[in-house]
Structures are given as C-alpha cells and as structure tokens.
C-alpha cells in the first residue's frame, strides 16, 4: 500500500514506523518536503500526485498553517472570525486533495504543554490558547464531517500514551522533529488500524469463553449463585465492567458469541437469571456450549454465522485453550489475555481491530438482527421443506437508487462483503458515488425484511450499459440473507432495467477470490449461461423470473425506467 505523508515538520520517523509496524497492511510511504503543506494540497500536478496514493496523512502544527493562531501564541490579540476563516481555508485545501486518494487522514492539532501555562488566561475568551485550540479543532471537525474519504484522527490520545516525553525540544531544534518516537509509534498503530477499517478488514465477532471470562469461578460447580459477578468484590465489579464494555462494542455492530466447555443448560440459566449479568442471551449471535474441542466449535459457529475465521477474535482466560485455537486456526485472532481480571476491560479497549470509518443504523441493530436470524433458522428447521419455509417468510425487498443517505452503508457493504461478491472491488464512498453517477451506469441498494424483522440494507447492485450489452458490475449480498431468493430478485432488477433500455444481452464477469465461491455457486445455478468458465450471460429478450415468495417494492419507480416484475412503487 502506498501512502503520501504531508507535514510542516520532519515526519520521517512516522514513515519508518509505518513500514516496520508488524500488523497489516504493509506500507511504503512517500514524504513531501516539510513546510510545503498548502502547495502540495492545492497543486494536483505536483510529482507526488503522479501516482494516486492509497492514502494520505496531513499532519500539521496549528501555528504553521493558521497565521492567527501563531499570533495568539505570541500573546497578540486575534479576531475569532479571522481564526475560523483560516481553518475554513485549510479545510477547503483538504477537501480538494481528498479527491486524489481513497482516504485522507488528518490528525487533530495539539501544542506542547508549555504553551498552556498562562493559568486562568488559558481558557480566556479573548486570549486563551487552550480555548482557541479546542475551538479550531471543533471547527476543523465540523467542516470535514460531511466530506467523504476524510478521516480526522485524535492526536491527543497519542500524546497521552507518550506522557511527559511526547514533545522533545532537543529533537525539534536538531531536526525539526515535533514529537518523540512514542507518539509516532502510537500514530502508526492507529493509522494501520484505520486503514484496515477503511478497507473492510475490521473484526466483526468476539467469541468468548464463560468461566473466568464473563464471570469468576466455574458455574458448573458452584451454580449461578456461586459465581463472582458484581457486588462489592473487586473482581466481581471488574467482570460487570467487562460485560458493559462488550455491550458497548455490540452497539457498534460487533457481534458477540460464546464458545465454552460447560453444560449448556447450566450456563444459559446463569446468563438468563443471574441478577448482575449485563449481557443476556439476546446479546449473543450464537453459541457452542458443550465439551467438544473449542477450535472445532469455533469453526462450526463461524460457519453458522456465515463469516470467515479472519473476522473473529477469541478471548479465553486459559493459555492452553488460546494456544490450541491459535495453532489450529491460523486466521483467527487470539490476543494474549491478562491473568488479573481487573485488567480485562483495559485489554479489551486496547484492541485496535474493531476500527471502522462509519457507524450506520444497520451496525447498531446488528445484534438484534442476528437474534432474529437465529429465530428464522430455527423456523426453517421446523418446517424442513425449503419452498414451504420461504413462502412463510413474507419477504419484502425494497429497491432504492444509490443516494447520499444510503451511500455510507452501501460503501461499507461493498468493502466488507466477500462471499456473495461478484467483483470484490473496494471503493471509497466518494469514488463509488462518482462512479455510479456516470450516465451509462445504474446502482441500487436492497433492503430486506420479513415476518421476523428487518435485516436492513443488505444488497448492492450496479450495471454498466454499453451499446447492445449491459454488464453487471457489482453484485453484493450480505451473508445474513443469502439463500432466500434475494439473489434471484437482484438479477431480476438488473435484467429488467437493462431490457428497458433495449439491450440484447446482460452478462456478469465473475472475478474469483479465495472467499467468493458462494457467488460462483449461485451463478452456476441461476439460469444464466456460463461462457468461458467465468462469464455468465442472459438473453435480454427474455425477462428473468422472480420467485413467488419474494415481493419487490421500489422506493421510487422513476429510478428504474421499467419496473421489475413484481416491483411496486411505494
């Protein structure tokens, strides 16, 4: 991955730590001459832009890019409007540069603590440096919050981690190095986590043991009233706080699951009935509570959730179980875990594998959706026959043209989905929106609901018209709704739209990856004709049939020139 580092100070050390930091992705950085921030941001013909960088970091000192702030440090009077105007000018330059990269990261402004030694005047409305620093950072965040592909980073966190050695004046005067190595190390770690998040590689599931993880003691021996949880006990309080932090992560869209060696009835009774339990059964997407090998249980559980092992984190207090899972399941992330229960929350919150660029309504509802999906699967087992089961679901698919409202979730789905993904291309929100706005292209999102509940925005479809042919470019569907005739409904929309333009042929090129075999399997049985192994074709003189158990509802029929079969405007 190629990065471009723009700064008004010597940033070579950050480049070095980005290269050496062991976690993915591997990074090779290009550094511009420090002090040429505005020139680099505004000049799209500069040599550093000749090859489009995968990401850009713009890290500046406030006094170097805001003349008014420099005057404030010199104790000169400053007009607040002038200060805000200069922040807006800097933000405009960032917006312009963001069009040349997939992701632009902007660390917030900080100043050394010796600039904040004016006592009561630090927060003065007329000359307070600390107050002005807070104001310009808020102004920066507000002006950038609606700019796609621009991600502010919290520099103060790195300063706190480095402590009293964060700023080193000796390094500044020797080599114009603003921060100590500890700050650059923390920045490199967070930047890599952010890049994984933007690239859709954030972890999606936390798999938890029970005994001495969610509570203290062995519930099978002591019963639910004998475990350590809550109360006025330090360890009991720590377990409750750990559960609260897990619950908070679930509100960010991280699924929780259980793999534990226990009697299931005893363990689930403790979860359901212990008065100090923060997490209840509905908070877990699934579980395997038995006496089988934990590694085998993890594989089975992840298969049920339709997620790869590389999307999971396994937390267990037993070093033997951790070693077994780590050696047997190479893709699984198994962090070392403290023996002292009081450090559980700190260890959890220190993990940098859950970073993601945005938080959508679907993320917030993911735990509830998983619980509903579990009910749905149980009903399937009861009915047995697939067609009978599908007919009872009363599935409604709402088709909506790609727009500014659904774009964040659509881009997230595009970048995270692997299994039912035709091309597995990755694009930022801005790039995807720009691509879809071309006259010969159409893009839609699909929201799926049934009698059990709403699964949210779970599908993306795009086509490209070219003469007598139409190519399906993106065919993306969340694993949560695969195998319920949603795939066929998406093909119906694509083909019917293409037919309305008069094309003779609709085709899809399958781009094989290690994870998208389910997409190939669907195309093979979809009714499309397979040519040359990976190209699938439909004769556009014929409509594509829609399954009788699925009802299509178009949010605005005008977005599709000819409504698909069974598609009603709502």
Brief overview, please?
With 570 residues, the protein is α/β, with parallel strands linked by helices. The protein has three domains: 2-198, SGNH hydrolase (Rossmann fold, 3-Layer(aba) Sandwich), CATH 3.40.50.1110; 205-350, Rossmann fold; 363-569, Aminopeptidase.
Beta-strand residue fraction: 15-25%
**CATH C-level of the largest domain:** Alpha Beta
Overall geometric form: globular
Question: What share of the residues lie within helices?
Answer: 25-40%
The number of E-state strands comes to 19
Stated plainly, the CATH topology of the largest domain is called: Aminopeptidase
User: Mean of the pLDDT scores?
Assistant: 90
Number of helices: 22
Q: What's the end-to-end separation, in Å? A: 44 Å
Main sheet specs? 10 strands, mixed
Number of domains: 3
The Cα radius of gyration reads 27 Å
Query: In the CATH classification, which architecture of the largest domain applies?
Result: 3-Layer(aba) Sandwich
**Helix/strand structural class:** alpha/beta
CATH homology group of the largest domain: Gcn5-related N-acetyltransferase (GNAT)
Poorly predicted regions: 557-570
